TrEMBL record, chain A:
Catalytic activity: ATP + protein L-histidine = ADP + protein N-phospho-L-histidine
One cellular component term from this protein's GO annotations in UniProt: plasma membrane
Comp. bias regions, Pro residues: 158-168
UniProt-recorded name of the protein: histidine kinase
Positions of modified residues (Phosphohistidine): 47
Keyword check for DNA-binding: no
Database matches in InterPro entries: Bact_Chemotaxis_CheA, CheA-like_dim, CheA-like_homodim_sf, CheW-like_dom_sf, CheW-lke_dom, HATPase_C_sf, HATPase_dom, His_kinase_dom
EC number, as in UniProt: 2.7.13.3
Organism: Sanguibacter antarcticus
From TrEMBL, chain B:
Coiled-coil regions listed in the entry: none
InterPro entries for the chain: CheW (IPR039315), CheW-like_dom_sf (IPR036061), CheW-lke_dom (IPR002545)
A Pfam short name: CheW
Naturally occurring in which organism (per UniProt): Sanguibacter antarcticus
GO cellular component, one term: cytosol
Alphabetical list of PROSITE patterns matching this protein: CHEW
Protein name, per record: Purine-binding chemotaxis protein CheW
Listed GO biological process terms: chemotaxis; signal transduction
Residue span(s) of domain CheW-like: 2-139
Length: 790, 139
């Protein structure tokens, strides 16, 4: 009995594979009806299934395959031309076969799957009834069909009772002019392919011609059969490969240890052996990793069918271009990418590509182009899903986010259009105007993102309104072994995945003190003119800061944020083997795993995305929380003050929390509007106030003006000060009330009496509406990341 | 009926874990501390290529936690998703204990210790406290 089960099992595995191929071939065949290779490939597949199912006594399966084969015989012998109806019927046959196989797999028997419909539909097509073209039509014809097949359990091929009408339809006319190209392009979906699911006319010859001619080379190479090459490959159990991979991981670790030991020993033989071991282990590792790699085409192969069906359902015309299908990925990753990718493809057709009428009206060709592209870049695999459809309108996204209560109007105002586009990844977001059964249920992009992130990848979106949308997935090559930077902090070693790392900045002790500046409590570093928010690894880990002589800033990119992680020392770049962590440690939320160093020491792998989310105000912050934080810091006794001078040697302190930016501009940029000074700043006209005048003194003439910029919501004021002196901590000492307009009092800072500016009162002179309460305080939160150099 | 227990000493008391749960006992291994880890998790050790979490039961037993550099023997115990290593002062012998010597813990035992200690065997030399390893992890 076990033997029988094995045979059935093998039959199932093989048949599933063949069916996937069949889907592709049939769709390709539709746009290249005269391709003999495709026809014979399809025919062989069905023939094999029929033969085996007969042998295994799956009679329903055999019946479906048999009648399908008869139809294919006609196609093969040229008695019939492939058209949309025939394709529909054959695809239904594939679906039915798949269903039966699924039933066999779960129950061991084939019963329960309704096959009469399909058999009848195919039979009708055989009989030349091309009229009821609707794919889902046949239900009304069940009984006659059932009786027909029952009466004739083994319907003979029925050699084309009516060959004339079948040869007549349009495709025949198209076949002649474009036939050459079709044959060349169709049979090879492996590296690149293109299909046209016809909606109105069966085959649009124009789109077939669009196919780049470069594919001839690869197609001729792969043309004979895209199938497994029997003798040169074998099937291997996935579990075995996983186990091999794990053991190779161990070997790599031991190798690292041995080279470490051999390094200390002067024994030449040992050194030589160790080097040899090192080499072999590397090669073995590479080899085993390769066995787990599969071309992304493996999941792309399902796309032509999905695109075809979906395009028909949505009433659009789509050409699918697939480039780089031979790009390889670890199979476990491939699995995790499948669903997100399918979702993006569905989304592109449902929401992206417009109907032919709309496209024509906007001057585009009526057939939309959906491009899947995969390529290697920087140790990662990039997968792009691009459509040339309507694009995503940031205004609509913003409106939807507002409507769903995901963001407030003020928050949206402060966002760039790219940031707004990224809102589509928020849970509960969907821009579909109408909820369709294809997509638009508001579960989608957030799932896409979390799926991709769970395998250490990321997803971005780019969109031009009217020109299309590109989704870009970044996926690591493999999960088990990854390149990482090892760093030392305190006594311990931590690993930072290279994927997140952009550059390293070394600071010696002197520089550490000077180069790291403060905005409020936040540390920043000027990296080529831009301010980089800094995070200390010691703080992240809740450990005391060491007083190391030097420090290194690892510039890291997580999602759309860049930040610097301060560590004590950088050790090495190395390939690390990722070991999973116990649940209790995963729950801490800042470690992605653990690894073993050459000396056998355990090192923790930092989860950079999680650290970024934890330490930077992430992209989904709670607005209430933000407000609370802002007011808390304002109320706090110790605040940081920006000290400036304002004419006649007066020193004025401004709470740093209120300041957005510090700028230096040439004096001639000042312009007058209606008697008020303004300045063009960041594409807006910004009112200017002079601090000295506001305080009743006057400032001298300077070539350059020092500006303190305040921003609140969409309002900005530039305050001219004489000179920006320093940033100090106010420890809440010596404060005396001074009764003067615009001042809160005076304090002693750095040994000198300094006036404390009443910012709201001072700014009200320039813009009375600046500190009105309706404006949500967004500015004080964005400043950390925005503040530029003095 | 009798059950075999691996015995070990933490502080002044003798503890035991069923022998079927114990995969090995080891001498001191250098531990890598895990910052921000819950109390009682004493870091990670490299056990022939596997990264294993070590658990210090002292805080749960009302004793002071071990300092990270403190040398300590280990009892490696199988749990649901792999192995964990219990830090102990000294590993004792494997004892074959009769079930009729067993008693459940007294009601005066504080609740958090009660989860951990399932009972006691009355030996001639003193009491042997039996540990619920899964409860130790749940800390």
């Amino acid at each position: 009995m076990d033997d029988i089960d094995d045979i059935v099992q093998e039959f199932l595995v093989e048949s599933y594979e063949n069916l996937d191929q069949l889907d592709q071939d049939l769709v390709a065949l539709e746009s290249a009806p005269s391709s003999r290779e495709l026809l014979s490939s399809v025919f062989r597949t069905i023939h094999t299934i029929k033969g085996t199912s007969g042998f295994l006594a799956f009679s329903d399966l055999e019946r479906v395959a048999h009648v399908g084969e008869s139809l294919l015989v006609q196609l093969r012998d040229g008695q019939r031309q492939m058209d949309q109806h025939t394709t529909d019927v054959l695809l239904r046959m594939v679906d039915t076969i798949r269903e039966i196989l699924g039933r066999i797999e779960s129950t061991g028997a084939e019963g329960g799957v309704e096959v009469d419909d399909v058999v009848a539909a195919i039979q009708r097509t055989l009989d030349g009834e091309t009229a009821p073209a609707a794919p889902a039509a046949p239900s009304e014809a069940v009984e006659p069909a059932a009786t027909a097949t029952a009466a004739e359990p083994e319907p003979e091929p029925e050699p084309a009772p009516a060959p004339a009408p079948e040869l007549a339809p349009e495709p025949a006319a198209h076949a002649a002019p474009t036939g050459g190209i079709r044959t060349a392009t169709a049979p090879q979906p492996a590296s690149a392919s293109s299909i046209t699911p016809p909606v109105g006319t069966p085959v649009s010859s124009s789109s077939t011609k669009d196919v780049p001619p470069t594919k001839d080379v690869s197609s001729s190479k792969e043309a004979p059969t895209g199938r497994s090459s029997g003798e040169s490959s074998i099937r291997v159990d996935i579990g075995l490969l996983d186990e091999l991979m794990r053991q190779v991981g161990e070997l790599v670790l031991v190798r690292n240890q041995i080279s470490q030991l051999a390094g200390f020993d002067s024994d030449a033989d040992l050194t030589r052996s160790s080097q040899r071991l090192s080499l072999i282990a590397s090669e073995l590792q590479e080899g085993v990793m390769k066995t787990r790699m599969q071309p992304i085409d493996h999941i792309w192969s399902k796309m032509p069918r999905i695109v075809r069906d979906l395009a028909a359902a949505c009433g659009v015309e789509v050409r699918l271009d697939m480039i780089g299908g031979d790009t390889e990925l670890d199979r476990s990753l491939l699995e995790s990418v499948k669903d997100p990718l399918t979702h993006l493809v569905r989304n592109a057709i449902d929401h992206g590509i417009e109907t032919p009428a709309v496209r024509a009206a906007t001057g585009k060709s009526s057939t939309g182009v959906l491009t899947l592209r995969a390529y290697h870049a920087g140790g990662q695999v990039m997968v792009e899903v691009r459509d040339d459809g309507a694009g995503i309108d940031p205004a609509r996204v913003a409106a939807k986010a507002l409507e769903r209560g995901l963001k407030t109007a003020e928050q949206l105002d402060a966002m760039t259009s790219n940031e707004i586009l990224n809102l589509v990844f928020l849970p509960g977001f969907s821009t579909a105007a109408v909820v369709t059964n294809v997509s638009g249920r508001g579960v989608g992009m957030d799932v896409v993102r979390s799926n991709i992130e769970s395998i250490g990848g990321s997803v971005e979106v780019d969109s031009d309104v009217g020109r299309g949308t590109t989704w870009r997935l970044r996926i690591p090559l493999t999960l088990a072994i990854m390149p990482a930077l090892t760093v030392r902090n305190g006594a311990e070693i931590y690993a930072i995945p290279q994927v997140s790392l952009q550059e390293l900045v070394a600071l010696d002790k002197q520089k550490t003190r000077d180069a790291i500046e403060h905005i409020g409590a936040a540390e920043v570093y000027r990296l080529r003119g831009a301010l980089l928010p800094l995070v200390r690894l010691s703080d992240v880990l809740g450990q005391p800061q060491g007083d190391a002589d030097s420090a290194v800033i690892a510039v890291l990119q997580a999602d759309n944020q860049r930040f610097g992680l301060i560590v004590d020392r950088v050790l090495n770049n190395e390939e690390i083997v990722v070991k999973p962590l116990a649940t209790q440690l995963k729950a801490i939320g800042i470690y992605a795993g653990a690894t073993l160093m050459g000396e056998g020491q355990v090192a923790l792998i930092l989860d950079i995305q999680a650290i970024a989310r934890r330490t930077l105000s992430g992209d989904i912050p709670d607005p209430d929380q933000r407000g609370a934080d802002a007011s808390a810091s304002a109320a706090h006794d110790v605040q940081e003050l920006l000290v400036v001078t304002a004419g006649a040697g007066r020193r004025v302190a401004i709470p740093l929390a209120a300041v957005t930016r510090l700028e230096q501009v040439p004096a001639d940029r000042m312009e007058l509007v209606g008697g008020h000074e303004v300045i063009q700043y960041r594409n807006a006209i910004v009112p200017v106030m002079r601090l000295a005048r506001a305080l009743g003194s006057f400032d001298g003439e300077h070539e350059d003006l020092s500006l303190v910029v305040f921003t609140r919501g969409d309002r900005t004021i530039a305050m001219v000060v004489e000179e920006i002196i320093e940033i100090v901590n106010d420890d809440g000492v010596e404060r005396s009330a001074v009764d003067d307009i615009g001042l809160l009092g005076s304090i002693v800072l750095s040994g000198r009496v300094t006036e404390l500016l009443d910012v709201p009162a001072a700014l009200a002179q320039a813009d009375p509406l600046f500190y009105t309460d309706e404006i949500d305080d967004v500015s004080s939160l964005t400043k950390t990341s925005e503040m530029a150099g003095v | 009926m009798s059950t075999q227990y691996v015995t070990f000493r933490i502080g002044d008391a003798l503890y035991g874990v069923e022998v079927m749960r114990v995969s090995e006992t080891l001498g001191h291994h250098a531990r890598t501390p895990v910052p921000l880890a819950p109390v009682g998790i004493a870091g990670l050790v490299n056990l022939r290529g596997q990264v294993v979490m070590t658990v210090d039961l002292r805080p749960r037993l009302g004793l002071e936690a071990l300092a990270p550099e403190n040398e300590s023997m280990m009892v490696v115990v199988e749990v649901e998703d792999g192995s964990i290593s219990l830090l102990v002062d000294e590993v004792g012998e494997v004892l074959n204990l009769e079930d009729d010597q067993f008693e459940t813990p007294p009601d005066t035992l504080p609740a958090h210790v009660r989860d951990l200690i399932t009972g006691a065997f009355k030996l001639d030399t003193g009491l042997l406290l039996t540990l619920d390893v899964d409860a130790a992890l749940a800390a």
